[in-house]
TrEMBL record:
Short name of any one Pfam family annotated for the protein: YjbQ
Family: Belongs to the UPF0047 family.
Record protein name field: YjbQ family protein
Taxonomic placement: Bacteria, Bacillati, Actinomycetota, Actinomycetes, Pseudonocardiales
Length: 136
């Protein structure tokens, strides 16, 4: 198994951040063949999604999360920015992990699929992502 932790700067706004390039670079440096890529976010307020980016789906995901989990004062978890409690509930809907098949050193994603970090927590501008390749 080959594993590496990277840092992603998400800044002070909600974001769906495409991790395709980082995953490709990791697989190349790992000398990956066939196997599985596991992506893990060790944070209580971030998740990972396999989604199309660049055509509006990433913004639609953030809109859907805002509709489902409003950033108001209904949340019992109250530290941080107003509505921050929603960020702690979000990983139940967008989990902090994803596993992608790898064939010939390349992620076996569909044409429009990307591996994306979903971060609604505006209080934490830097995220860690753990990439692990398990040979098949």
């Amino acid at each position: 198994m080959h594993s590496e932790e990277i840092e992603i700067r998400t800044g002070d706004r909600e974001v769906v951040r495409d991790l395709r390039d980082e995953c490709r670079q990791f697989l190349s440096s790992a000398g990956a063949g066939d196997g599985l890529l596991n992506v893990w976010v060790p944070h209580a307020t971030a998740g990972l999604a396999i989604i199309e980016t660049g055509a509006g789906s990433d913004d639609d995901l953030l809109t859907a999360l805002r509709d489902l989990l409003p950033d108001d004062d209904r949340w019992r978890h109250r530290h941080g920015s107003p509505g921050h409690g929603r960020d702690h509930v979000m990983p139940a809907f967008v989990p902090p992990y994803a596993t992608i098949p790898v064939l010939g050193g390349r992620m076996a994603l569909g044409t429009w699929q990307s591996v994306c970090l979903v971060d609604t927590n505006v209080d934490n501008p830097v995220r860690k992502v753990r990439l692990s390749f398990l040979p098949g």
